[in-house]
Amino acid sequence: MTRPAAGRRRSIAGLVVVIVVALVATSSAALVGSSAEPRATSPGSGLEVVAERGVPDAVLVSRTLFDSAPAAVVVGGGADGAAIGGGAQAARTRGVPMFHVDPTSMGAVRSELARLGVDRVLTIGEVPDLGVPSTSDPGDLGAAGDDGAREPAGDAAVVLLVDPGADAVATAEAAGARTEVLPTADPRSSGSAVESLRSSPDAPVRAVGAAFADERLLRERIGLARSVPELPGGGQIMFPGRRVVALYGSPGAPELGPLGRQSIEESVARAERVAAEYDGVSPVPVVPGFEIIVSVASSDPGPDGAYSTMLDPEAVRPWVDAAAAAGVYVTLDLQPGRTDFLAQAKRYEGLLTQPHVGLALDPEWRLRADQVHLTQIGSVAPEEVNRVSAWLSGLVRAHGLPQKAFVLHQFDADMLGDRSRIDTRHPELAVVVHADGHGTPPVKLETWRRIVDGLPPGAWTGWKNFYREDSPMFSPRRTMRVRPVPWFISYQ
Prior knowledge:
- Helix content is 29%, strand content 19%.
- The protein is built from 14 helices and 19 strands.
């Protein structure tokens, strides 16, 4: 099972090859042309968004964290990954900024070199004349640090970046900042960023780049990052910082899916094994999951005429507790028959107040008063879905919880009615439209295309693999080739 890394501050180091050898061989070389040392600035406390149209992130980081620097690393065209990684390592170990230069960034980089007082640059690739003496020898930049890395001090600035270049990351690290690379402009999307913000509550925060345009929203999210419990795998929003791979079924009911075919402990181990199969094919960390059917569609109307049997929440609690201890995400699945989804969801409020528990609605099993299971396919009106999402989002706010998965199962076009009327705007919820079609690959993919066409705005995608009904079942690699890529994958 993959977990989000404790930090991203070493992410570039793995690229270092040839140039690292040169760094070691010349670690005692003196700075050519100047005896000055880089001088880092001392950012003020609080939050500052640093963005300027047309100015690269690396230049913005340098402006924020450096008062001066006698040298810099500049990367031009034609540099491969290994060379760029070596340049980043040189910048970090010497404590100097790094910039990528092209025709669009030339003016900003030239101006920043002048402001810093740079009198020598290490060039990587094809670098145009910047009006500063250049060298291709890392040793000309001065002595390297003892271990090639600078650990941030306790009061170091926390620098937030989204999709940055290697130059912006290296520049922030060279200044000794706590450097956090985020998948979105939300610090809650990264367990490492949450850790940095919590461990240094008084440290200045610098959000660099146009992605952080809404400072009020960012300030609110930072406050939540410092106060809200984390999800399994770290962070506090569901996607895109993780992918959930879950076993589907109901405890003690092996005919309903693989979840119910073994004990709690064995189910945890099985979920971890299935999730681990995605480690090599998912570009984001994978979290194992349980999707537990807590209200089961019934062929018998029962004493209340609901055609649905609800599990006692206390019978489900041991599964939920074991999942929490193992870092497994839980989704409670409702098959309500003739009962309203919201009425059943409220029965499980005590479980849904736990940070690692989300909710799934299965409209196939939502009947009108004149319908019965397996004779008609059920459906739900968008208004009923919206009542549930409004209640669930309120629960998240009232209890100070991380974002919850809100999964809507679908394989037939009519099951969710007019999906444009489904409200996906609750920031407390990650709405997942989950395609449940089974059969041969062409049949599954046709169902998938029908489901993902016209998705509600902001909705994420889910996919189900069937051990028995698929022929053949998609492998993890083939599942990850589906487009758009699914974020919530379950096995039945």
